[in-house]
Design brief:
By secondary structure, the protein is an alpha+beta fold. The protein has 2 domains: 1-15 and 230-249, no CATH class; 45-140 and 153-214, NADH Oxidase. It is built from 8 helices and 4 strands. A 4-stranded antiparallel beta sheet has the order 1-2-4-3, with helices on both faces. The longest helix is centred in the middle third of the chain and has 19 residues, at 89-107. It is globular. Bound molecules: flavin mononucleotide. Flavin mononucleotide (FMN) binds next to loops. Flavin mononucleotide binds next to loops.
Length: 249
């Protein structure tokens, strides 16, 4: 299949040259500079679990980041999230112990060579980051029938993940590193943070100022996995038909 030039441009990714149209004269439009800043934020967001600085995160900065989370889209406008702000060293020690237990189990799930590399990875910054956030989802916040969740029951969970991504990007714009730690059992998370059964813990995030942001993912630099070429992931019209014209996937 031939690839038209607009498809090629679309797939060049956010680092491609930003089109000249500015939106300056348009109501609610983004200027070229604003657009560039947003793409930069997206491209330079990293999962951070090292090089945290001890500097506290000011309340007003944290407030803006949480407001970004709360501005996320949600199914039926459910806004199913809560944000637990965790600073207590004792709680963080308990979370770190839970991570250490789960991480040992996780390492044993990989083949020996892979397990060796896995054990060399730094996969959390629980004790180094000055604060942590736990984002939860209250699935029955508006009762059992929710607009938009009637036929796809996980939509409230996905909505909460949208809030997490907003937090991640807003934090990057505030020069705060964020590291998502998912290598702990939900039972441990519930017990340590007092999260009752109907509420679902979605994300545990390490948050803090960092000495630097890496330009590539830690896992890529460690040789765990590479970024896949976008053109291998974009289909045209039907699943499996590559838009790049490389052939059927
Ligand atoms: C749902 C989710 C869970 C993750 N859990 C962990 C984790 O437990 N430990 C870790 O080191 N990174 C975790 N990550 C971060 C990924 O490893 C990281 O996003 C990926 O390697 C790409 O790197 P980047 O975020 O810097 O672009 C998680 C990311 C997501 C989206």
């Amino acid at each position: 299949m031939a690839q038209d030039s607009s498809a090629r441009e679309r797939m060049a990714g956010p680092q491609a040259e930003i089109p000249a149209r500015t939106g300056d004269g348009q109501q609610g439009g983004f200027s070229a500079a604003e657009r560039a800043a947003i793409y930069r934020c997206i491209t330079e967001r990293r999962d951070v679990r090292r090089n945290f600085l001890p500097d506290p995160v000011p309340d007003e900065v944290l407030g803006r980041v949480l407001a970004a989370g709360h501005a996320a889209p949600s199914v039926g406008f459910l806004q199913p999230w809560n944000f637990i702000v965790i600073r207590d060293p004792a709680t963080r020690t308990a979370l770190h112990d839970a991570f250490t237990r789960a991480n040992g189990e996780a390492a044993r799930m990989f083949e020996p060579e892979r397990a060796k590399l896995y054990r060399s990875l730094k996969l959390e910054g629980i004790l180094e980051a000055p604060l942590m956030l736990c984002v939860t989802c209250e699935r029955d916040r508006a009762g059992p029938v929710v607009l938009g969740r009637t036929h796809q029951s996980e939509m409230d969970i996905y909505s909460t993940v949208c809030a997490v991504q907003n937090i991640w990007l807003a934090a990057r714009a505030e020069n705060l590193g964020v590291g998502w730690v998912s290598i702990l059992s939900l039972a441990d998370l519930r017990a340590i943070l007092g999260i009752p059964e109907p509420i679902v813990p979605i994300a545990l995030l390490c948050v803090g100022y960092v000495a630097r942001f890496e330009t590539t993912p830690d896992l890529e630099r460690a040789g765990w996995r590479k970024r896949l070429p976008l053109e291998d992931l974009v289909f045209s019209e039907r699943f499996g038909v590559l838009a790049s014209g490389k052939g059927v996937s």
